[in-house]
Write a structure and sequence with these properties.
With 106 residues, the protein is mostly beta strands. Helix content is 4%, strand content 60%. It is built from 1 helix and 9 strands; from the N terminus they run βββββαββββ. Strands 1, 2, 3, 4, 5, 6 and 9 form a 7-stranded antiparallel beta sheet that branches. It has a two-stranded antiparallel ribbon with strand order 7-8. The radius of gyration is 19 Å and the shape is elongated. The two termini are 18 Å apart.
């Protein structure tokens, strides 16, 4: 079984492996920059690390591949027979990360 970690970014948790790519909420970093991600759990070959002291030794690094916008989400509210109609849209600002280094304790 390969090593993996669960990281936290923007209040959400993601399961990552070395070489994997993921979309997170927009980070304040330029394309090509390396960012350190905060691990919540690490699973190695033989052990599982979940304690705060042991997680301080776990390193998860990722490279910012690109900044992009998510798909448009359309919102439409109305009340029947009242003439109330509201239309809105939303597009999330996202960042694509590629995990470059996943190093456990030890």
């Amino acid at each position: 079984m390969s090593d993996y970690a669960v990281i936290e970014s923007g209040g959400k948790q993601y399961k990552v492996e070395e070489g994997s790519s993921l979309l997170v909420d927009r980070l304040d970093a330029k394309e090509g920059d390396k960012v350190a991600l905060r691990p919540v759990l690490f699973r190695g070959d033989k052990d599982v690390v979940a304690g705060a002291k042991d997680l301080a030794k776990v390193k998860v690094e990722a490279k910012v591949t690109e900044h992009l916008r998510g798909p448009k989400i359309k919102v439409f509210k109305y009340k029947a027979k009242k003439g109330y109609r509201r239309r809105a849209g939303h597009r999330s600002e996202l960042t694509r990360l590629e995990v470059t280094k996943l190093k456990g304790k030890g």
